[in-house]
């Protein structure tokens, strides 16, 4: 027990307490009769300590590690998701601090309300909470997705977020690893399971179709997640992004002229052809309407001024990923070009377009 305590960075007293409350009980004995930890005990202890260091209470930890539907891999994926969620929160807080420092350097007054909003509970509301106000179901994209669902009655929505694009006329089950996103799902929406795409807690062929909308790029292992979707459903429908075409980052003026770092955000993202092969799918282009209601990254391709709005950008994970310096430079450059007329001159071919193909693709298997 002493050796395990030393390796884990906790006291022997803590381990005795976990034993007393049946949270982690050593199941082995040394030759001398002392309690010892088996490999399985150490694995459970690792999970307990990880959840504790993420701030969970002992009662919550007991429920999490006692979940019969979660194996060691499922716990690791859940822990990773929680850590990434905290990383995003930390990145957003750092960006908020940078904005306040910049304001103070320019001699601008920062009110107490703004200070609390930047570093308090409302900060994450402004990031994740913006999804419910700017990322909504776009009817024309939804029609294409729902048409691909065909006659499916039971639908699994993987990486469901706040519930956009879930068809109201089907029996939907949602899967979403983020507690922040689950909390924002509207009342009356489909039941939502806390799980990761790579380890879906369902039997083989439990659903007519599994769908995933603009979420694959957030997964730890996209190929594994797609295989899981294929396992639990007879058909698969995935809205994703095409990075196969040479020079794909130049399709959109924002990434071409102002945010070259976007290419790095998708570095390592699997090819569209590879994803299609994984599930045996065909790909359909998904045109983005000029007045797209869904605030996805490319939605404002004919409304460039929207990218100058803080609340619009905060609902797009791209800006957190590229960092505050790249964001400030891109916004400043776009603002200057809009004011001078350079943007309009450079993108005059967009004026009369009703839709644009910017790489959004629907995989149908």
From TrEMBL:
Q: Which CDD domains match?
A: AdoMet_MTases, HTH_TipAL-Mta
**SUPFAM superfamilies per the UniProt record, alphabetical:** Putative DNA-binding domain, S-adenosyl-L-methionine-dependent methyltransferases
Is the keyword DNA-binding assigned to this protein?
yes
InterPro entries noted in UniProt: DNA-bd_dom_put_sf, MerR-type_HTH_dom, MerR_fam, Methyltransf_11, SAM-dependent_MTases_sf
**Domain of life of the organism in this record?**
Bacteria
**Protein's name in the database:** MerR family transcriptional regulator
Domain HTH merR-type stretches: 1-67
Instruction: Alphabetically list the UniProt keywords.
Output: DNA-binding
Alphabetized PANTHER family for the sequence: HTH MERR-TYPE DOMAIN-CONTAINING PROTEIN, REDOX-CYCLING DRUG-SENSING TRANSCRIPTIONAL ACTIVATOR SOXR
Please verify whether the record's keywords include DNA-binding. yes
